[in-house]
Amino acid sequence: MRTAIKAGRQPLRGVLASATAIAALFSALSAGAHPAAAQPAERNAAQPAERNQAARVPHVKPIRGGSVKHADFPHTRLGLIRAGKWVHRRGNCGDSFCTIQYYPPRNTYRAYKMFGCGTFRLHDFQGRFHTHNHGSLRVHLLDRNQSVDRSIAPGGKPVVKWGPIFFVKTCNRS
Questions:
Q1: Residue 19: exposed, middle, or buried by beta-carbon count in 10 A (0-12, 13-18, 19+)?
Q2: DSSP β-ladder status, 108-123 and 128-133
Q3: CA distance 171 to 174
Q4: Could you read off the pLDDT tens digit of each residue along the chain, which spans 174 residues?
Q5: Cβ neighbour number for residue 88 with a 10 Å cutoff
Q6: For residues 56 and 93, what is the distance between their CA atoms, to the nearest angstrom?
Q7: Which of 137, 147, 149 has the alpha carbon at shortest distance from 173?
Q8: d(CA 36, CA 38)
């Protein structure tokens, strides 16, 4: 009786071992082939995003007078609300012009404070974000030719579409 049971189990073990080996082979082949086949497509799809990510690094550079500081906030709804409050709070932006931009390298919202009289070059500013002129003089938003696109009076806090704006000029009397 024992011999019959042993003999019956051995072919079953052989079939199970073969099935396991075949399943492992298919798994290895599909795992090995799948990433290799998908890899070029993923690289091609990822490369433009990486290029756009690297190309889009908004920042502000004073070109004539003035200084710039910033504060980062999480790229969440609450982070955007906190950045907006930071921009509108006089304690943070006293006698300055402040605004917000999404900052991809850190995946944050970045609130900028431009203070002192000067002209500031905006690099890769996009979207619509809150601003606040806490200064006592007008702020001019300038296009790529440094022509006035929009003026913000003292105390003004409009939402600005940044696409056509390339420069900010503070301390304007008119």
A1: exposed
A2: unpaired
A3: 9
A4: 555 445 555 554 554 455 444 444 344 333 333 333 333 333 333 344 444 445 568 899 999 999 999 999 999 999 999 999 999 999 999 899 999 999 999 999 999 999 999 999 999 999 999 999 999 999 999 999 999 999 999 999 999 999 999 999 999 887
A5: 15
A6: 25
A7: 137
A8: 6
* Residue 65 and residue 119 in contact, taking contact as beta carbons nearer than 8 Å: yes
For residue 131, count other CB atoms closer than 10 A to its CB.
23
Distance between CA 144 and CA 73 in Å, rounded?
A: 29
Dihedral pair phi/psi, residue 67, rounded to 5°:
-140, 165
Paired tokens of 136: 């006592």
The pair of structure tokens assigned to 11 is: 């072919």
**Secondary structure class of 65 (helix, strand, coil):** strand
Domain definitions of the chain by residue range = 1-55, 59-172
The contacts of residue 88 (CB under 8 Å, 6+ apart) are 98, 130, 132, 157
Token pair 């889009």 is found at 56
**Within 10 A of 117 (CB to CB), how many other CB atoms are there?**
13
Residues 68, 112 contacting (CB under 8 angstroms)? yes
